[in-house]
Amino acid sequence: MKITVIGTGYVGLVSGTCLAEVGNEVLCLDVDPAKIKILKDGGIPIYEPGLQDMVKRNVAAGRLHFTTDIKRAAHFGSVQFIAVGTPPDEDGSADMQYVTAAARNIGRYMTGYKVVVDKSTVPVGTADAVRAAIAEELQKRGVNTPFSVVSNPEFLKEGAAIDDFMKPDRIVVGCDDEQAALNMRALYAPFQRNHDRLILMDVRSAELTKYAANAMLATRISFMNELANLAEKLGADIESVRRGIGSDPRIGYDFLYAGAGYGGSCFPKDVKALIKTAAVDAGIDLKVLNAVELANDQQKHVLGNKIKARFGSDLSGKHFALWGLAFKANTDDMREATSRQVIKDLLSAGASVTAYDPVAMAEAMLCFPNEPGLSYADTQGEALNNADALVIVTEWKEFRSPDFEIIKAKLKSPVIFDGRNLYDPKLVRGMGFEYLAIGR
Ligand code: NAD
Ligand code: UDX
């Protein structure tokens, strides 16, 4: 099949590359010439394990191409994936300008039947808006070319994106016409395993399914974060509680890790957008989700608050080593990363910070350009120099079994604030550390 993917970010680049990997001819379009240049030069603009090799292999095989040429992209694919960003607007709703622009560009230049696939996370009703935008552009051209609009939300996780796309646990397709459903079945046939993973439903249900999934996962995390704060006060250990409840198959072990708040480009914005859609489009106040968001906003201050409780609310003259900047391990993505709040909390209290992250430092420098009081170290060990304490924000593997003797020797006081519960409290405290984790 010939496929166009519009938007070559985390989702577009992974989707396009995986679709090429199974034999399709794929053209990835982006309006950002810098991204397309990097890709044409053989690099990739993001960090995602395994992606660089896969891109190279498919470019070499002549199945994967990159362009900024909107007209060429609209002609190319019989299937047109829209995978552009839907960032939060000022009021929390999803900003639909990129999706609308992508749809209009398809309508402006398409020739022949197209299946237009909404892969971006979009509010219920977007497929109708995309259909209307394309129809309007066709009308302006005085042509009556047929097309279908399908909702096919993406569930990949950054850091595990290739595996998630190549071996999906479900493929949600929202579709109101048979021709498009057949096309989607054929397209996803190579990604089926053991049993049929494709769940066909109406378009609106598919659009809502994506928000429901992220909202449910965010809810589990905020719930565990609240229980962790409670466990801490009551002298219980949230890790034991997690294992205790996760063993119930009705609950399950996944996404029950307490921490310093969830971040990333999806949970925070999708929870906000769902709250907003419910209020504006349906007049419904989503009380549970409002609480999930509030709890998460507070949880992002939990490390800052613990540090102030230990060292005093005026942190002037104090210096902290910060391990981990990305919103989670195995990505360079800094969107809504908890580290941003921790850094702000520490700097605004007068402290200075030296941060280290295996891959997200370049992104962090874009978030904090020339921030007084914030510096970066080349290694995790170097970050510890002259620090009063170590603060861990991201669960990178290389932070999991450090040389504690070196940490102790370098820190002015042997204090570790662990926002990811990486270590066994007994073990670390036994080595003479003051160990302040989450809910333990
Ligand atoms: P991103 O910001 O990494 O990439 C979006 C890309 O679209 C950018 O490169 C931008 O230049 C490009 N773009 C914008 N307007 C364009 C246009 N008119 N034509 C061509 N290109 C255009 O975004 P992302 O993280 O890949 O997310 C994309 C969508 O997928 C969002 O709706 C997001 O919620 C959803 N999603 C993201 C993830 C994730 O893990 N990042 C997972 C599932 C779903
Ligand atoms: C998420 C969804 O998992 C994915 O299905 C969707 O397509 C996009 O949004 P992503 O944002 O890449 O993926 O990361 P995810 O692994 O879900 O983590 C999101 C945030 O929750 C991170 O900050 C992570 O550290 C945090 N988290 C996750 C916890 O605090 N505890 C957990 O148990 C799991």
Automatic annotation (TrEMBL):
Positions of the UDP-glucose/GDP-mannose dehydrogenase C-terminal domain: 321-425
Domain of life the protein comes from: Bacteria
Listed pathway(s): Nucleotide-sugar biosynthesis; UDP-alpha-D-glucuronate biosynthesis; UDP-alpha-D-glucuronate from UDP-alpha-D-glucose: step 1/1
Top enzyme category: oxidoreductase
Enzymatic reactions: UDP-alpha-D-glucose + 2 NAD(+) + H2O = UDP-alpha-D-glucuronate + 2 NADH + 3 H(+)
Annotated binding of NAD(+), by residue: D30, K35, T86, T121, E158, K269, R335
Record-listed E.C. numbers: 1.1.1.22
Binding site for substrate: F155, L156, K157, E158, K210, F255, L256, Y257, A258, G259, G263, K328
Active site feature: C266
Pfam family, one: UDPG_MGDP_dh
Keyword Oxidoreductase: yes
GO MF terms, alphabetically ordered: NAD binding; UDP-glucose 6-dehydrogenase activity
UniProt KW keywords: NAD, Oxidoreductase
One annotated GO biological process: polysaccharide biosynthetic process
SUPFAM superfamilies: 6-phosphogluconate dehydrogenase C-terminal domain-like, NAD(P)-binding Rossmann-fold domains, UDP-glucose/GDP-mannose dehydrogenase C-terminal domain
The family this protein is said to belong to: Belongs to the UDP-glucose/GDP-mannose dehydrogenase family.
Entries under PANTHER family matching the protein: UDP-GLUCOSE 6-DEHYDROGENASE TUAD
Protein role: Catalyzes the conversion of UDP-glucose into UDP-glucuronate, one of the precursors of teichuronic acid.
Name of this chain's protein: UDP-glucose 6-dehydrogenase
Organism: Rhodoferax antarcticus ANT.BR
